[in-house]
Design goal:
The chain is of the alpha+beta class. It contains four helices and 14 strands. Strands 2, 3, 6, 8 and 9 form a five-stranded antiparallel β-sheet that branches. Strands 13-12-11-10-14 form a five-stranded antiparallel β-sheet.
Length: 221
C-alpha cells in the first residue's frame, strides 16, 4: 500500500520534524534577521529619541541589529567619602544618534523597549542628519574633553606644588637641569614654583612645576 503525501503536507512535515524530538525544558534557537529594522538604501544618520537614562541600552539594542549608535557623553570621576566613582555627563539626554546602513523601518525600530521616536521633518518623515551637525556634536565632546584634561593638569600641578614650600631644598628630576639641586623661592596659586640654583658658578632662577622637582631632606641637601 502506498501513501500519498501532498506538497502542502510535506512542507508542513519538514517544518515540524526538527522539533519532534524536543522535550519540555529544551532550549530552542530563534532565528533573527539583523537587517530587519532597515531596508536597502543609502546609509544615513538619524536622531532617535529614547527613554530617560536608557541611552546605553538603546545603543546595545541597535548594535545587535546591525546599527551603530552613540550618545555624546563625557566620563567624570569624583571622590565621595574616600571612594572614587565614575559617572557620565550626557550632553543631550534622551537622544541616541544612529547610523543605519539603509532606510530605517520606523515601526520595526520602535519595537525597541528603549526607543520612542525620532526627530522628524515637517512632513512627518524621519529627518536625516547632515555631516555638519554630527561634526559639531563630536567637536562639543572633544572640546569638553580638552577642558577636562586641562583642569586635571592644573590639579596635578597644584598637588605637586603643595609637596614643596618656600625655603625647601629640592632637586630637578626631569628636564634640562635634571640632577641639579635648588632652593624653592616661591610657590604661586597656579602651581608654578620659582627656584634658584647655581649654574656655571652663577646663581640662576627659573619657574617650574612640582612635577619636575623632588624635595630633599635636610641631610640630603
Amino acid at each position: 500500500m502506498s501513501i500519498l503525501i501532498s506538497e502542502q503536507q510535506w512542507s508542513a512535515h519538514t517544518m515540524v520534524s526538527p522539533f519532534l524530538s524536543l522535550r519540555i525544558g529544551d532550549a530552542v534557537p530563534v532565528e533573527s534577521n539583523s537587517t530587519s529594522i532597515f531596508e536597502a538604501g543609502d546609509s544615513a544618520w538619524y536622531a532617535l529619541l529614547c527613554r530617560p537614562q536608557q541611552e546605553r541600552q538603546a545603543e546595545s539594542w541597535l548594535a545587535a541589529r546591525g546599527v551603530y549608535a552613540f550618545h555624546p557623553v563625557t566620563s567624570r570621576r569624583t571622590k565621595v567619602r574616600g571612594r572614587v566613582r565614575e559617572y557620565e555627563r550626557r550632553y543631550l539626554p534622551g537622544y541616541v544618534f544612529a547610523r543605519f546602513a539603509g532606510v530605517p523601518v520606523p515601526h520595526r525600530v520602535l519595537t525597541s523597549p528603549f526607543l520612542t521616536g525620532a526627530l522628524c521633518r515637517s512632513d512627518g518623515q524621519w529627518g536625516v542628519l547632515g555631516p555638519k551637525r554630527l561634526a559639531s556634536l563630536h567637536e562639543m565632546r572633544a572640546r569638553d574633553l580638552r577642558q577636562e584634561d586641562e583642569r586635571q593638569e592644573q590639579r596635578r600641578k597644584a598637588a605637586a606644588a603643595r609637596r614643596v614650600r618656600a625655603g625647601d631644598r629640592a632637586m630637578f628630576r626631569a628636564g634640562p637641569f635634571e640632577g641639579f639641586q635648588c632652593e624653592v623661592v616661591e610657590v604661586d596659586a597656579a602651581g608654578g614654583i620659582k627656584v634658584r640654583f647655581e649654574l656655571f658658578g652663577r646663581e640662576s632662577s627659573v619657574t617650574t612645576t612640582g612635577e619636575t622637582l623632588v624635595g630633599l631632606a635636610a641631610k640630603e641637601s
